[in-house]
Amino acid sequence: MFDEIDAKILMIIQHDARISNAEIARQVGMAPSAIFERIRKLEAQGVIESYETRLNPKALDLKLLAFVFVRTSEPTGAQAEAILADIPGVQEIHHVAGEDCLLLKVRVADTEALGQLLRERIHTIESVTSTRSTIVLQTVKETSELPI
Hints:
Elements: H1 4-15, H2 21-28, H3 32-44, E1 64-72, H4 78-85, E2 90-95, E3 102-108, H5 111-122, E4 128-135
Antiparallel strand pairs: 1-3, 1-4, 2-3
Helix pairs in contact: 2-3
């Protein structure tokens, strides 16, 4: 799907999405126009999905990170997942194996906000039968970078 040069480009832009094509070209040893074409090809192939800005949650008063296991009355949790996806603060939703159906990554201001989110948003979903929450005390590593 991609070669060694593409892998180098992906590692560079994964670390800094704002880096210029000229700087990528300098690091890889190619012309900026060739880098531009390779990036466009990787986008067209779906290898590069999007470009994002990573915000500091603490600076936005979203100091509490929690993981919430959600059990539903339906085996896949499909009915609940669409509703959960629209809730502000729910950053990720994963189908998981085991007793629970879904695992959510949630960011909120504090424990009070987490309780409110659980009571007023998540537990009001008809198919949700129970939740279990784990509050993060300290984050040692958090990244969206993939090994290439």
